[in-house]
Amino acid sequence: MPPITAAYPHARPRRLRQAPWARRMVRETTLTADDLIWPIFIIEGKDRSEPVQSMPGVERLTIDRAVRAAEDAAKLGISAIELFPYTEESLKTATCEEAWNPENLVNRATRAIKKAVPEIGVMLDVALDPYNLDGHDGLVIDGKVANDPSLECLVRQTLAQAEAGADILGPSDMMDGRVAAMRGALEGAGFHDVLIMSYAAKYASCFFSPFREAVGSGGALKGDKKTYQMDPGNSDEALRETAMDLAEGSDMVMVKPGLPYLDIIRRLKQEFACPVFAYNVSGEYSMIKAAAANGWLDGERAMMESLQCLKRAGCDGILTYFAPEAARALKA
Ligand code: PBG
């Protein structure tokens, strides 16, 4: 009989980490391409793309190229893409009419993509920042972002986007009552199946600045968005916003940004047991790209770890500029 001794630990967590097969066998969270939504930027023109300086590897694409990008994304198994327009200055007005022009850039892009690649979901942002001169998500009246007049614009924008064939609408404006207004309009017009993924817990974050360069709203932004986006010090408020959005008819909710807000993702998932998404925003993307370009981090590993950790925190899916790169890495 070998001696039984307490000198050695009987419980050894390292046994489960001894080899790749064992680690795979007990891994709780696995990222797949199904989890990914890819945000892309659209510009006017034909067969052309331009780099976004502050987001290495990201380009603004003309509609024909966006169609090809959507085809590639579908082949990679990415579930959906979100389209953001780079709106020409001449189309921006204080009253934001371009937002509900059926022929605006994103509506044309949506039609082209849904026709060529019907198997991929198309999501559009509902907010006015691409269409006004102040860079704000709502209408600016007497120097303030005016809630209820903004809702009327958002409803018009919603209907034009649904008409264009968008599958998912993402209100990112943070006006009070927007989801109820949008849902009422969609139901009234017979768009019963259009999904709403509300930016429910959207924080007034500095991590959005590369995005604002990408859509050309950064230079324009007057002041900040703190009267409508949430205070980074708050967590209970995220529950309240989410409860309202779900009650108003949102099908899914989003936390934005992602990585600094993992606790919010976890709280929402636990509290509401509904589909929760994280937006791994432009600043989170650019930080990794910048560190990798300097040789300070292994960019691919930092990307995969970030996405996996967002999922571990509790989200069902992730909006990320890394989507094609991550999907390719998952296939390899
Ligand atoms: C606009 C909008 C923003 C983002 C998505 N929709 C910027 C903002 O609120 O100022 C940010 C996305 C990102 O940083 O990747 N309503």
TrEMBL record:
Binding site for Mg(2+): E241
One CC-aspect GO term: cytosol
UniProt-listed Enzyme Commission number(s): 4.2.1.24
Active site residues according to the UniProt entry: K202 (schiff-base intermediate with substrate), K256 (schiff-base intermediate with substrate)
Class of enzymatic activity (EC top level): lyase
CDD domains documented for this protein: ALAD_PBGS_aspartate_rich (cd04823)
Record's keyword terms, sorted: Heme biosynthesis, Lyase, Magnesium, Metal-binding, Porphyrin biosynthesis
Keyword Isomerase annotated: no
InterPro entries the UniProt entry points to: ALAD, ALAD_AS, Aldolase_TIM
Annotated GO MF terms: porphobilinogen synthase activity; zinc ion binding
Catalytic activities: 2 5-aminolevulinate = porphobilinogen + 2 H2O + H(+)
Pathway noted in the entry: Porphyrin-containing compound metabolism; protoporphyrin-IX biosynthesis; coproporphyrinogen-III from 5-aminolevulinate: step 1/4
GO biological process entries: protoporphyrinogen IX biosynthetic process
Pfam families the record matches: ALAD
The keyword DNA-binding appears for this protein: no
Subunit details: Homooctamer.
Protein family per UniProt: Belongs to the ALAD family.
Record PANTHER family: DELTA-AMINOLEVULINIC ACID DEHYDRATASE
Protein name per UniProt: Delta-aminolevulinic acid dehydratase
Source organism of the structure: Rubrimonas cliftonensis
Source organism phylogeny: Bacteria, Pseudomonadati, Pseudomonadota, Alphaproteobacteria, Rhodobacterales
